[in-house]
Amino acid sequence: MTIYPKINILFCSLFLICACSNRMTLDKLKDQINDKLAEQPGKFSVAFKDLSTGETLLINEQTYFHAASTMKTPVMIEVYKQAAAGSFSLNDSFVLRNQFKSIVDSSTFSLNPDDDSEQELYRHLGEKRSLYNLVYDMIIMSSNLATNMVIELVNARNVTQTMRQLGAGKIQVLRGVEDARAYAKGFNNVTTSLDLLVIFEKMARGEIIDSTACDAMIRILLDQHFNEIIPARLPREVKVAHKTGNISHVQHDSGIVFFPNGKKYVLVLLSKDLQDEEKAKKAMAEVSEMIYKYVSRSDKPID
Known about the structure:
Helix content is 42%, strand content 17%.
């Protein structure tokens, strides 16, 4: 009587046990994340994907959130797409100006420098800056002035159309920043954590335009100035290419996390209806740390 069938059955059983154990580990991580976020009043969304293993964790991933400045990543993507098509060059220069048109009625409005996280550009109105420098300031300093200039160049409708082509079905980029007439009518940029995960995964894999464009965009995102959420509790040698976003009662972060050994994952953390934004940011940073530790020791149970 052969013993091979018994060995095969035993091997399959052990494989299934290991697979279930790994799955339970991810489930336990999800429970811990939910517990941590439940400590803070507000609504949260999480989208995580390990690009090496394919493991994915999603919480409220289809819930709409005001995009805040996370929409600047889709805008950057559109710039690189149109530049690749020959519409303009990233080296082209544009005169800095602070006058923009509302999408509601084309009436003009200006930005208040005191409400912008980057104020240096306002001191140089009338001077020229390259498109690359505008995109860079839009991402790393979240410059609203640069953002509005770039959006008027590429057209918000084109941004949304490109998101659909990339498989992000719910991101909606309608307008630039501080268009009060549009805001009053409820015309806001929105996103979901799943959609942001989709575009960052494609960027990480070099699948937006081409690998050269993706690498260029990642280099910009790596220089992000605001690092209170995803990178805050990670080791210094771990690099994060990311874009934050915040308005009143809203705090977001989204991007790609790179290990020194080449391993990488995408993480998106969104929030709204916050009562204490500082505490919420700290909780989200702890969630980021939890996910990092899980990826670092994914073959081990979570404590």
